[in-house]
Amino acid sequence: MYVKIPFKRILRPYQVEALQAVRAGKNLFSVWHRRAGKDILCMDILTMRGLMRVGTHVYLMPYQKQAREVIWEGMDAGGIPFLASIPPCLIAKKNDARMQIRLINGSRLVFGGSNNITSIIGSNPVTIIYSEYALHHPQVSGYLNPILTQNGGLEVKNTTPRGMNHAFDAFEAAKNNPSYLVQHLSYQQTFDNDGNRIITEEMIEAERRKGVSEELLRQEWMCDFTSGNQGAYFTREYNDMEREGRIGDIKVNPSLPLHSAWDLGLGDATVGILFQINGRYIDIIHVIHDIGKPFKWYLETANKLRQQLNCVWGNHWCPHDVNQKHQGWEQVESRMTMARREGWILQTVPKVNLEDGIEAMRFAFPHIRINKLNCAMFIRAIREYAREYDEDKAIYASKPLHNWASHYADALRYLSVAYRRLYDTHQSPRKYNTNT
């Protein structure tokens, strides 16, 4: 049987270069502007790799939900489903619930989110594609790369910049790695097969007339890493912290209690912030983060850190849903009950709307000091926590982009709401109802 890849598509010259490099066994890091066809190319790469080597080939979006909406059920600008890139004659079986396709040679094509990497690690993938890598958790490739090193697999990363974040660091490293083809293409460098621009100057000017800022144009269309993370909530607050030296070697004070604030996930990430109220400052000493661990593990980890720091426990703040019971997750009981059994008394932060929560964070930021060594990922999350961008309206939405950074930000929001209500006067802190 003869099958041509790409299937029923004509790739552009810069896409052909990338496809040929992967076919030759190279890893790929593509930094392309919006609408350059990143996912179209990556679908062809996924199919080609599935034919070249029998094994598991994984296509990752930042979140599982995005994998279904964008790729599994999504279409390109021409209305062609992304899954149409896979010739039907190659498909032996398709599992819609699990978003998996079995090819006739035995290879599996798996679509998912990097927020659920525990299931991916056990599948021993030989190809991993990260779509919009700048929006993935910064540590995800660190978890998965050892698998590719051991089995001789390869990775493909595509992205549009989001400031000088982990994608920029990985991009710089890839440029000096001969095992990678690295592409960094602005809208002025991408052409179709007739030599015409994919994105014209008239299109860019139309974006300006919609009110799109020059900084965002540089980020999205010029692929400029230095334009900053457009739409970030706390750029000014973060810069103030750096300028005032509030990110550094912040020491624990053993004579003060150690408090905690938590964003509790189920199949998602959980973040715990360990901090002290030291005069007018909120000293963030340590941040705990992981995915897929049982709740008891986080409590035990926090307690070990407290013992190392030689402190006594203070208050523990959690979101309002800490009382909800969860069927099939450890056992049928609430995390409030689990914590009480381990000797923890959790307190619920009052439920406030997102806008008030963001305002509470801004109130708290001038008081925050952070231990740079113990809280590196938390610091990065503060910098990258940003609003969703609505491409159709060319504006930032009023809600935050739900990605890896939002879990850290949610924990900080709970801390901030509690701090503003408890410590914004010189009086002794009030106690919330502990729901006993």
What does this structure look like?
By secondary structure, the chain is of the alpha/beta class. The protein folds into 2 domains: 13-227, Rossmann fold, CATH 3.40.50.300; 235-423, Nucleotidyltransferase, domain 5 (2-Layer Sandwich), CATH 3.30.420.280. It has 14 helices and 17 strands. The chain has helices at 13-23, 38-52, 64-72, 117-121, 140-151, 166-175, 201-209, 214-220, 235-243, 295-309, 335-341, 354-364, 376-384, 404-423; strands at 27-32, 56-61, 91-95, 100-103, 108-113, 125-131, 154-159, 180-185, 247-248, 258-263, 269-278, 281-291, 313-318, 346-348, 368-371, 387-390, 395-400. The strands form 3 sheets. An 8-stranded mixed beta sheet has the order 3-4-5-2-6-7-1-8, with helices on both faces. Strand 3 and strand 4 (100-103) form a beta hairpin. Helix 13 (376-384) crosses helix 14 (404-423).
Please report which band the strand proportion falls in: under 5%, 5-15%, 15-25%, 25-35%, 35-45% or over 45%.
Answer: 15-25%
CATH class category name of the largest domain: Alpha Beta
Give the end-to-end Cα distance, rounded to a whole number of Å.
68 Å
In terms of structural class, how would the helical and strand content be classed?
A: alpha/beta
Q: Give the overall form.
A: globular
What is the third-level CATH name, the topology of the largest domain? Rossmann fold
Strand count: 17
Low-confidence stretches: 425-436
Helix content: 25-40%
CATH architecture grouping of the largest domain = 3-Layer(aba) Sandwich
Q: Output the number of helix runs.
A: 14
